[in-house]
From TrEMBL:
Residues 1-25 form the signal peptide. Keywords: Signal. It comes from Paenibacillus foliorum. This is Extracellular solute-binding protein. Coiled coil: none annotated. It holds the Pfam family SBP_bac_1. It comes from the Bacteria.
């Protein structure tokens, strides 16, 4: 657990981290024109920033439960983390969790039910029709400006210190609408191409960096290692290779920002056709998993990677590479995965785009709903995650149980890292909150292999920071309605044709016909809306 001086030095160090974790301009006190928050139904005598809070009230929260935690519990309140959070904040919370894979459907039903909990953790930017401005106008969620100013000193301090974060958390009209998930600077890159290094060594091949080198490697995996699906990936509404391979052609399988700062829809770029020709060729030669469209859950991908059917994929750092290395080495001590660079067409070229998140992750942030009876209590409870002590609980759990302080730095205990039955992610999920509205700590790492540390560096060598379109830009209510109306049909048709082109069910000569159809469906309207929203965001 470390001695007193270690604890003290860590406390000072964390205070510095909290004060410098890239956080922005003062909470706006401008009149946003939003309705006032509902009056509290009961007094909370504890002043803002002081815990535990003195209250007899119970809050309700709707949020996705980490899939690793479902191994042990059916509800977050039953976990060591849930119990410790209640103890430290003084607030009892009743949680409701949507079933895994059904979040979208159950979120829509929840909104339609008119029976909302106090807080909801979800992506309010992309999942509510009309976005956060509309959700506020509909009184589904509350504007948080005054509530943060008076009841959330920890988040308020972060916003005052980091103008970039402050800009991310507001709508164009200046309304704060969520308590954010904030990634640390070293937690922005966590997915990329990975490949069986033990196979490469056996075949005397290097880690591929170009499209041509990948072709040679995948062919060798198929012909010399007997891999039935040399390159595989999970399929969730689209082939989840992010921008690997496609990005080599200086485009993306999504909306992106080009070198001139213009929003583009990659799947209708002329060069996207070249990417499809490549994937079609690889598929026809058996280099891409023939059943890729059936890999709709992580278990299918696990089976391919663990059965030696596949030697390469695009996956997560800990939930993929770390987990597979742990399992694979038990069966075969030589099993080794390494991160490969996002491939380019020319040797030495810098990748056009890759996976890189922003510090604000809207997908796991919490809004306070219009149904809340005591908004001050909800906001004080949420603000705990941004305090020094709260950040430690959310990131590392309970000192002496899930982590210790060594030389002033937190480290997961052997109870977490060396459990014989469960992997690191499963153990950590019981004591912390892997995703959610809290301040991420750069000292936190799920990496158990040096290959993971090296992969992050390799995957970070892209120009993604220039080309990834932020998910937190906020179209106006009218713009959002238009996007919602057009985008569903466009993306559905795009994906249908993507699969058909890759599998050879449609001739590549139909690409022009396909792009014309997407233009007729209104893609230019959508890109203009995103462009206008991006321009407004850049001017905030």
């Amino acid at each position: 657990m470390g001695n007193h001086s270690n604890k003290k030095s860590f406390s000072v160090a964390l205070s510095v981290v909290l004060a410098s974790t890239s956080l922005l301009a003062a909470c706006s006190k401008e009149n946003t024109g939003a309705k006032e928050a509902p009056k509290s139904s009961g007094a909370v005598v504890t002043e803002a920033g002081k815990y535990p809070i003195s209250t007899q009230e119970t809050l309700t929260s709707w949020e996705q439960m980490d899939t690793n935690l479902t191994t042990f519990f059916t509800n977050l309140s039953e976990s060591p983390f849930g119990k410790q959070l209640e103890k430290e904040t003084g607030v009892k919370v009743k949680y409701t969790h949507p079933a895994d894979g059904q979040s979208k459907e159950q979120f829509n039903l929840l909104i339609a039910s008119n029976n909302l909990p106090d807080v909801i953790e979800y992506n309010w930017n992309t999942s509510y029709p009309g976005g956060p401005e509309k959700a506020i106008a509909d009184k589904v969620i509350l504007p948080l400006n005054d509530l943060i100013d008076k009841n959330a000193p920890n988040l308020k301090k972060l916003l005052q210190q980091d103008k970039e974060l402050d800009k991310m958390l507001k709508t164009d009209s200046g309304k704060y609408y969520v308590f954010p998930m904030i990634r640390p600077d070293n937690g922005l890159v966590f997915r990329g191409p990975m490949i069986r290094k033990d196979w490469l060594d056996e075949l005397k091949l290097g880690v591929p960096t170009t499209i041509d080198e990948w072709y040679i490697v995948l062919k060798a995996f198929k012909e010399q290692k007997g891999a039935s699906a040399p390159l595989t990936a999970q399929y969730s509404n689209e082939l989840n290779i992010q921008d690997a391979f496609i990005g080599a052609y200086k485009t993306a399988n999504r909306y992106y920002i080009d070198d001139q700062g213009k929003v583009k829809f990659g799947p209708i770029d002329p060069q996207f056709k070249d990417a499809l020709v490549l994937l079609r060729k690889w598929y026809a030669e058996g280099l891409i998993d023939k059943d890729f469209a059936l890999n709709t859950d992580s278990k299918a991908l696990d089976n391919k990677m663990m059965s030696d059917s596949s030697g390469a994929t695009v996956g997560l750092l800990s939930g993929g590479m770390g987990r597979w290395m742990e399992t694979g080495k038990k069966k075969n001590p030589q099993f080794q995965l390494v991160g490969a660079p996002y491939p380019t067409l020319k040797k030495g070229e810098r990748a056009f785009i890759g996976q890189r998140d922003f510090k604000y992750n809207p997908a796991a942030s919490k809004a306070v709903t219009g149904a809340v009876k005591n908004p001050e209590l909800a906001v004080k409870w949420l603000d705990y995650a941004f305090s020094e002590k709260g950040s430690m609980l959310f990131n590392f759990g309970t000192e002496g149980e899930s982590y210790t302080i060594n030389n002033g730095a937190p480290q997961f205990s052997e109870k977490i890292t060396k459990n014989e039955k469960y992997n690191l992610q499963q153990m950590v999920s019981q004591y912390t909150k892997p995703n959610g509205p809290f301040l991420g700590n750069s000292a936190k790492s799920f990496n158990t292999f040096k290959e993971q540390d090296e992969a992050v560096k390799v995957w970070g060598e892209t120009d993604a920071v220039k080309h990834v379109l932020p998910l937190f830009i906020t179209p106006t209510v009218e713009e959002s309605k238009e996007v919602a109306k057009l985008n569903t049909a466009i993306t559905s048709y795009k994906e249908e044709m993507f699969v058909k082109f890759v599998m050879g069910k449609e001739p590549i000569e139909k690409f022009d016909e396909y792009t014309n159809r997407i233009k007729e469906m209104g893609i230019d309207k959508v890109t203009k809306i995103y462009q206008d929203a991006l321009d407004r965001y850049n001017k905030r």
